[in-house]
Amino acid sequence: MLDLLSDVEFDMFRKVIYAESGITFSDTNRSILDSRLKERLREKQLTSAQDYYRLITSNKEEMKLFLDAVTTNLTRFFRNQPHFDALVHYVVPHILELKKNQFDKKIRIWSAGCSTGEEPYTIAMILKDILPAPYSFEIMASDISLKSLMVGKQGFYPASRITGIPEKYLSRYFTKIEDGYQICDELMKTIRFDYHNLKFAPVTRNLDIVFCRNVLIYFDEPAQLQVINHFWDAMAPHSYLYIGHSESLFGMDTKFEFLKTNWACLYQKNV
Fold first, then answer.
1. Which helix or strand (DSSP H or E) is residue 21 part of?
2. Would you call 197 helix, strand, or coil by DSSP?
3. pLDDT at residue 9 greater than cutoff 60
């Protein structure tokens, strides 16, 4: 078993993780980095942290796998219900009002840091339920974790993971198979899962809604601002940004306006 990383090695890996992804590892979560690194060393049959460092800095695919290994992916369906209440009662009605005289009737959404897919599937179920004709929607779901994206693309979840889904959605969009549930093709077709590192700007534009919840907490302030500016550039006028309930843009030099609804707080690109 590999000993704990030396201070020099920890600093090496911490710096390369930040340079590649913007994710910050502090001394308090050093043990997480150490345990994830041990797993990769066993997988690659290497014996030293230095050997693995040389590998990730010379092999882009292994770097992706390493960043996947060190990220945390905690999520669930309908996580933080007030956010979705605001979506139903405030955000979507305002977007429909905005688009009613436009030729374009499609609502474009990005679930950034989507983890294993519960968030984008939750959004899709809600929009399927409330959007009137002739409106439609498309969801881009992205993450830095390739393993998590694969779960989302497959659309299969163990029975323990589907708690909190209202019965009307469970019966309509899920099929019970063996010891879990499979999401139906109708819903899966509305979501495009794709790898994306938030350190870099997306190619997508004119987004009406961006969800990036409980992701910014892993970045320091300069990296947070970089991500927020990428969102601004990708979003349409009068669009909406969701971040985690414990996250805030206060004190940050950003163009987004704080918006307090009767259900939840979010941010708006109000131009």
1. helix 7-21
2. coil
3. yes
